[in-house]
Specification:
The complex is a heterodimer of chains A (256) and B (495). Chain A is of the alpha/beta class and 256 residues long. In chain A, 38% of the residues lie in helices and 27% in strands. Chain A is built from 9 helices and 10 strands. Chain A has helices spanning 6-10, 59-66, 89-98, 115-126, 130-143, 159-170, 189-206, 217-222, 240-250; strands at 15-28, 31-44, 48-52, 74-79, 82-83, 100-103, 177-181, 209-213, 225-230, 233-239. In chain A, helix 4 packs across helix 5 (130-143), helix 4 (115-126) runs parallel beside helix 6 (159-170) and helix 5 (130-143) crosses helix 6 (159-170). Chain A is globular. Among the domains of chain B are: 15-68 and 361-492, no CATH class; 75-216, no CATH class. Chain B contains 23 helices and no strands. Chain B has helices at residues 17-31, 36-73, 75-84, 89-102, 105-115, 119-141, 144-152, 160-163, 167-179, 186-195, 199-225, 232-237, 241-253, 260-284, 286-296, 304-309, 314-320, 326-352, 364-391, 393-401, 406-444, 447-450, 454-484. The longest helix of chain B has 39 residues, at 406-444. The two termini of chain B are 34 Å apart. The chains are: A alpha/beta (256), B mainly alpha (495). At the A-B interface, helix 2, helix 3, helix 4 and helix 5 of A face helix 1 and helix 20 of B.
């Protein structure tokens, strides 16, 4: 944590997700696999975090913890002050529905539903009346630039468009945090960039908190902070402005 | 959306059932024709079930109708036989048993008034006669080898009434039969023995008293016929109304149930039968043969049945007009056609059911086939559902990420199955009904409509449909459960 002063960074910011000394142990046959080895991290409201790490580093497990999809073997995860390990299945479903928006690498749209139906699905789960859900769905589709295509099914859309719909869907219930797992992994460079800027826009203009796992260097430039995970531990945290210098020194070409 | 909004988890309203249902329908609507396998399995099972059920309804309705028609056609003959010929003990037993099975008040009244035995006594006697009849029928139905063993052991059908006086020794003789697992009506018979000690004497007494009245009736007929040479039937046909009324009242005085309409019916039916037999005899006579072959240019002499078929032909009419009136020929022709149809129907129906058995339903073999088909159907649906759940792991996990609860996923898959059961069921019902209908039409022709029961078919359809839905839902319990338990992090998986 060379380039990062947490205290200074935390000034005037509110902790949204607090991950405190989280361990996660899987049993693979007789063998114990330590996917997470004591991770502690605060995520502040309104920031954009990039999580990086090679595959098998525990990045996905970390995401599952933050997203309330899995509970830690030991340690605690607080979401808006609620300890997620204490929740039962139903409460977790409530939390996933209203507090967390998911964006997947494979988009995971419901193929038999139209774009609008996909976007309104989480609102149906949340019990939003259908008229309200529809108008809000249209608003969201407009926001991601697909207002004209509300009646198209995923089959009739390109990868970038599908990911936009997925982002609109993730935002449906005004989540506290947007979890993006390699959102550009299945996209070409150009559409990937468009998705970055969409996320960046949402973060800066609409104040959505974004946490994003990526290998994509383009993603780094739009984020506020970067977290490197390796062997189930946080290797390094850095504010983006500091990293840029580093990147230059590493000789990566990055012309955003 | 521009501003972050705090949402209190607990205060939000959740999905109503209607919304859940609507969402499920929306999902299923598009997927219905992808799971054709499940649908096909349901369709086949329901069609099979519907086919068996509606066919049994057809058979039941037509069977009871036809047996009623046959009974009606033979009624006058039976009446005359009852009045004028002495009954053997077996005949008495059958009559009593038939009255007991159908709980025929009129018949009991007649038995009582003819023999002078009190009515409740007669009913009691009839219940005994029914037991004996059941044993006798069973005895007649078993293979001859087993029958021989029973006869050898002196436990055959004839031995029953003699055994009444010594029930214990009969039971002793019957015991080895039970040990040999010769199935029978022994238990019922034993309780009959225990319940009714004076049965044999009572039956003999009944029979004697009855036959005494029969001979009195015979005397009446003899006396009234006077010098009339021909048969009783012909005598009745030629009587005037007053003479018939006299005949009726004299027979009724003896205690027989013999009303005005009985006599009228008797005259009509006998007339028809007589005309028929006269035409029949004439068609078979040698005097007609030559002319017939000449007119119809036949090389061989055709059987009488074939000649009857041509009775409505103008050429045949002209040949017969000298001997019979047109009206008589029409009567004979109609009689022939009706008789032949009823006989062929009875033959067909008795292959499927016992005509007198009103409770005819599915037989053992059909039930076995049904159970097998249901099991196959369940396995098929379960398999198809499991496959579809494996394919849709990502969709299910995503739904869970978006806030679907386990209960919702379970409900959705169960509802999907129920809807598939419903749609497949409707197709199956139509298919099964069509097959049964066409088969019925081929076997029974117009009688299918004559004894048509829309309510019966509707009940079958409804029942089959419900069976289809229940099958589909039952078969989907396990797959739906495993779908609802799927971990939401599966959605993150990348292949």
């Amino acid at each position: 944590m060379v380039n990062f002063d947490e205290k200074k960074y935390a000034e005037n910011r509110e902790v949204l997700v607090a991950v405190h000394d989280v361990h996660r142990v899987f049993m693979r046959g007789e063998e114990e696999v330590h996917a997470l080895n004591g991770i502690t991290l605060n995520i502040y409201r309104g920031e954009y975090i990039c999580v990086m790490g090679p595959s098998g580093s525990g990045k996905s497990t970390f995401f599952n913890m933050v997203g309330g999809l899995d509970s830690p073997t030991s340690g605690r995860v607080f979401m808006d002050g609620v300890d997620m390990a204490q929740l039962n299945a139903e409460e977790l479903a409530f939390l996933r529905c209203r507090k967390i928006g998911y964006v997947f690498q494979t988009f995971n749209l419901n193929t038999v539903m139209t774009a609008l139906e996909n976007v309104t699905l989480p609102m149906v789960f949340a019990g939003v009346p259908s008229d309200e859900a529809r108008s809000r769905g249209m608003e969201l589709l407009d926001r991601v630039g697909l207002g004209q295509r509300w009646n198209h099914r995923p089959k009739e859309m390109s990868g970038g468009q599908m990911q936009r719909v997925a982002i609109a869907r993730a935002l449906a219930n005004n989540p506290s945090i947007l979890l993006c797992d390699e959102p550009t992994g299945n996209l070409d460079l150009k559409t990937g960039k468009e998705i970055h800027w969409l996320l960046h826009d949402l973060n800066k203009k609409d104040g959505v908190t974004v946490i994003c796992a990526t290998h994509d260097h383009n993603m780094l430039s739009v984020s506020d902070r970067m977290v490197w995970i390796s062997d189930g531990q946080i290797e390094r945290i850095a504010a983006t402005e500091n990293v840029r210098i580093e990147k230059a020194s590493l000789g990566t070409e990055d012309d955003e | 959306m521009s501003k972050y909004r705090e949402i209190d988890v607990k205060k939000q309203r959740s999905m109503t059932f209607c919304e859940t249902f609507g969402l499920c329908i929306k999902g299923v609507k598009h997927r219905m024709f992808r799971s054709l396998l499940t649908l096909a399995v349901v369709v086949l099972a329901v069609a099979f079930f519907m086919f068996l059920l509606s066919e049994s309804v057809f058979v039941k309705n037509i069977g009871s109708g036809v047996s009623k028609e046959i009974k009606h056609d033979r009624r006058s003959q039976h009446t005359l036989t009852r009045i004028s010929s002495p009954a053997s003990e077996m005949v008495t037993i059958r009559r009593l048993s038939a009255a007991y099975v159908t709980n025929d008040e009129r018949a009991f009244g007649e038995f009582s008034s003819v023999t002078g035995i009190a009515k409740d006594e007669v009913v009691k006697l009839a219940s005994g006669a029914n037991q004996e009849r059941i044993y006798a029928d069973w005895f007649d139905s078993i293979p001859s080898g087993r029958r021989l063993i029973l006869v050898h052991n002196n436990t055959g059908r004839g031995a029953i009434r003699y055994a009444l006086s010594d029930r214990d020794s009969f039971a002793e003789r019957l015991a080895p039969m039970i040990d040999l697992r010769i199935p029978g009506k022994q238990v019922g018979l034993m309780s009959f023995f225990d319940a009714y000690s004076g049965y044999a004497e009572q039956l003999t007494r009944f029979n004697t008293l009855w036959n005494r009245k029969v001979s009195a009736a015979c005397k009446v007929i003899e006396e009234m016929k006077g010098g009339f040479e021909k048969s009783d039937a012909e005598w009745i046909v030629t009587r005037s109304e007053e003479e018939l009324e006299l005949f009726r009242s004299r027979i009724s005085e003896l205690g027989f149930a013999f009303g005005t309409e009985d006599v009228k019916l008797m005259q009509g039916q006998f007339r028809e039968a007589l005309v028929y037999s006269r035409v029949y005899a004439f068609l078979g006579s040698s005097s007609l043969r030559e002319e017939w072959t000449r007119v119809f240019r036949e090389t061989t002499v055709s059987p009488i049945d074939e000649k009857f078929e041509k009775l409505n032909d103008g050429r045949a009419r002209s040949l017969l007009r000298g001997n019979f009136t047109d009206e008589e020929l029409d009567l004979a022709y109609e009689h022939y056609i009706r008789e032949r149809r009823l006989m062929s129907l009875e033959r067909k129906l008795s292959a499927v059911m016992t005509l007198d058995d009103a409770s005819a339903g599915l037989n053992g073999r059909q039930v076995f086939l049904l159970v097998i088909s249901f099991v196959v159907c369940m396995v098929g649906i379960t398999n198809a559902m499991l496959m579809s759940i494996t394919e849709r792991f990502r969709e299910i996990a995503t739904m869970k990420c978006l806030g679907a609860t386990d209960g919702y996923i379970l409900l959705q898959f169960m509802m999907e199955a129920a809807l598939q059961g419903f749609c497949g069921g409707i197709v199956g019902v139509v298919l099964g009904f069509l097959i049964a209908f066409l088969r019925g039409l081929m076997s029974y022709g117009g009688y299918l409509f004559k004894y048509w029961s829309t309510s019966g078919v509707l009940a079958c359809s409804l029942f089959s449909l419900i069976v289809g839905i229940v099958l589909a839902v039952l078969a989907s319990v396990q797959p739906s459960w495993s779908a609802s338990r799927m971990a939401p992090m599966e959605a993150m998986r990348v292949e």
